[in-house]
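Render this sequence as a predicted structure.
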Amino acid sequence: MKQKLLLFMSVFFVLMMIGCSETVNEEPESKLSQAEIIIVIDEISDNHQVEFVDGTSLMAIMKENFEIETAFEDSFIIGINEVLADDEAKLGWMYYINGDFATSGANDYIPEDGDVVEFKYESWE
């Protein structure tokens, strides 16, 4: 009787260890967020709702959702959807986060859920 009890307890212990090890290895799901990206050229706006994984840079979101051209080691957006910066006319892409002029590059900015990001094709003078 003691041997059967010992065998049962051993099998039970092994099964418990296997069950516990599977739950420890599970990775948490990535949280998805949304932002509104507005492309503005000559006061004409093109609004886009985008979904992204938390922690994704604005540059990565832009590359995934738009046709982007970059400069300076991929840190500065010079073209969106085939509209390129124009050095002669001193026009380029500036961006604003929730109405405020951005103070970092698109590679460095990590959008938050609900952000409104406007890319405006405007003079840099």
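Summary. The longest strand covers residues 32-41. Residues 32-123 form a domain with the Ferric Hydroxamate Uptake Protein; Chain A, domain 1 fold (CATH 2.170.130.30).
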